[in-house]
Write a structure and sequence with these properties.
The chain is α+β, with helices and mostly antiparallel strands. It has 2 domains: 115 residues; 46 residues, no CATH class. The chain is built from 4 helices and 5 strands. The chain has a 5-stranded antiparallel beta sheet with strand order 3-2-1-4-5. Strand 4 and strand 5 form a beta hairpin.
Length: 191
């Protein structure tokens, strides 16, 4: 079909139709979620006067799976304390600001527990009330030897006792998401 014919035939109907009202469908309900870091990058603010860290997260669950969150953390001003709190979760609390961009790649693909809040604010342009998500990073979860719950993965059914003992030994020498040695209590028992 010729698209010019199609467009001219539907032009009047298209022009008469009013846009759907934005009902904040992009807002994720408040709650605790697991997410994965898809990207971290430096971005300029709209007025190009400052820089911020821009995080792209994808929700893993328990609900709203694959929904994306975009978080901006300012690198100067009153909100730097929130930026530093987020960086501390990723083990960057002692990292110099100048070296941060070299660290982004190593945090891609990391699972993280987050808390999402919904806040209302009044839009300065049209005075309407709008909603926005505030996202707080809680902790990194998962690694090669951990499940996304932060606990050691259960051994496969029928795992030999020797392997179970090795896994228990490894658990006693576990390392958290920041590379610090930690102790995980409890023994692993095959199903």
């Amino acid at each position: 079909m010729d698209y010019n014919h199609y467009l001219s035939r539907n032009n009047d109907n298209f022009n008469k139709t009013k846009p759907a009202e934005n009902k904040n469908n992009d807002i994720i309900p408040a709650g605790d979620y697991k997410a994965i870091v898809e990207e971290i990058k430096l971005r300029e603010t709209k007025d190009k006067s400052k820089f911020m860290l821009n995080w792209h997260l994808s929700i893993l669950g328990p609900k709203h799976i694959n929904r994306r969150l975009f978080i901006n953390h300012m690198l100067e001003g009153d909100n730097v304390k929130y930026t530093k709190a987020a960086l501390k979760i990723f083990g960057y609390d002692k990292t110099e600001l100048i070296s941060l961009p070299t660290k982004f790649e190593e945090r891609k693909g990391k699972e993280i527990d987050i808390t999402v809040e919904v806040k209302e604010y009044q839009d300065k342009m049209d005075n309407s009330m709008k909603k926005v998500n505030n996202v707080y990073f809680k902790r990194i979860t998962g690694s090669d030897n951990q499940s996304s719950s932060g606990f050691a993965k259960p051994p496969a059914a029928g795992m030999p006792k020797e392997s179970t003992a090795e896994l228990n030994k490894a658990m006693s020498n576990a390392v958290d998401g920041n590379g610090n040695k930690t102790s995980l209590d409890g023994d692993v028992t095959p199903y």
